[in-house]
Amino acid sequence: MLMKGESGLQAILMAGLITGVLDGLSAIAVSAYFGAGPVRVFQGIASGLLGRSAFQGGFGTALLGALLHFVIATGAAAVYYLASRSLPVLLDRALVCGVLYGVCVHLFMTFVVIPLSAIGRRPFVPQSFAAFLLVAMIVIGPSIALNIRHFSLR
């Protein structure tokens, strides 16, 4: 069983797992509002690697997308954990810093990662941008920050 403060790697993995689940559920809910089902959500993530062909791959590419989703969440948790080693405020004020980190993650994914992926630049849709920004501010950033604080020692 994972005990609080056992290791940085375990803190990162737990934060990545918990955030991945919460964000995945949020993405499914928000995407349903915009008319997309769960398989399409995760195929969309896989399309960052495979391009448009991900949408023809059925459940298999959705599984790849789910795996990539957790890799990305864990990577974001690793960045926060490493930064928190030098900036204790990230743990001392985890909720506020988490909200701000969520904004940073969303902007980085939207304007750097996705345009450089196989998806390329996409049209800017303000409603979608705002909805997923709120998810990043309410779910992704705080989940990473609070879980890193909970599962790690300084």
From TrEMBL:
The chain crosses the membrane at residues 12-34, 54-82, 94-117, 129-148. Keywords: Membrane, Transmembrane, Transmembrane helix. It comes from the Bacteria. This is DUF1440 domain-containing protein.
